[in-house]
Amino acid sequence: MPKTLNPLELIARRWQPSAAFVRRAALATVVMAVIIVVTGGAVRLSQSGLGCSTWPKCTPDSLTPTAAMGINGIIEFGNRMLTDVLCVVVGVFIIAARARHPRRRSLTRLGWAQFWLVMSNAVIGGITVLTGLNPYIVSSHFLAATGLLTVAVLSWRRACEGDEAPRELGARPVRQLAWLLTGSAAALTVIGTVVTGTGPHAGDAKKVHRIPLDWQEITQLHVDFVYIVVGLTVALWFTLRAVKAPAAPRRTVLELLACLALQGVIGYVQYFMGLPEIVIGCHMLGSALVWICVLRVCLSLRDRGPLLEEKPGEPAPAGGHEAPEPQPASALSR
Q: Which is deepest, 93, 132, 217, 263, by most CB within 10 Å?
C-alpha cells in the first residue's frame, strides 16, 4: 500500500521555493506582527475595545458589527479580521519553509510556534472582551503579541543564515552584557504595559477597572528603565569597539541607539502634550521597533555561516531527504 502523504509533503514535492522567497515570507511575518501590535493599540486608543460586545461573535446575534455599533464596532471587528490575514502570512511561511529543499526543521518549528502564538493570542483577545477590558488581561494580550514578534524575528534571522554550528563573535563578558541589555529591554516592555494599565486610555468610554497603582510613579519607573537600556546600549557599543568586534554587531547597536533616541523623543512629547492618542500610537510602534533592534543586537553576536543557495534547476530528491540538523543551541544565547 503506498504511503499516504500529508498536504505539506505533497506541496513540497511539487513546489520548490527559492531561499529568497522563504526570507521574504519570514520578513512578512515580522511586518504583520508589528501591524498587529499597532492596530491593537489603535483599538484601545479609539475606545473601541468593546466595539464588539462579545466573542467570538461581534454581538450575541451577529458575527459582524451592526450599523448601530458605529465606528467602534468596525474598528474592533477589523482588528479581529487582521488575525486572519496574519494566519495566512504565517501559513505561507510554514509552507515555504517546509517545501524548501533541503528541509530545515528549525524553520518549520519556528513557523508552527508563530501559528500557535497567534491562536493563543486570539483566545486572550476574546477573554479581554469577555472580562470587560480587564487591565491585566489587556497587558497579557500585548505581551503575547510581543512574544509573536520575538519568534517572527528569530524566524527571519534563521531564514537568512546557514546551518553550521553557532560560532560566537564576542567574548563571554560581551555576550553577557548583551543578555543584560535584552533582559532590561524586556523589563521595560513589561513595565510599559503596567503604565498602560494605570493610565487614562482604558479602551472604552465607559468606566473600566484600572490597575491600582500611581500612574506617575509607574511612569517614572518606566523612564528609569529607559535610561538603563540606553546606558547598557552605549556601554555595549564602546565594548564592541574596544574588542574590535566585527562591523555587523556594531552596526546593529547603532541602529538600536537611533531607535531609542527616536522613541525617547516620542515618549517625552506624549507626556508633555497630555497623552494624545496619535502620539501614543507612534510610541507603541516605536516599542515594537526597539524590541526588534534589541533582538538583532543579540543575534548578531553569533554566526552560523552563509546560507547555502540551491543551484538553479537542481531538482529535489524524490525521497525528500533532509539537510543535516544543526547542533542544538539556543537561538539567542548562541
A: 93
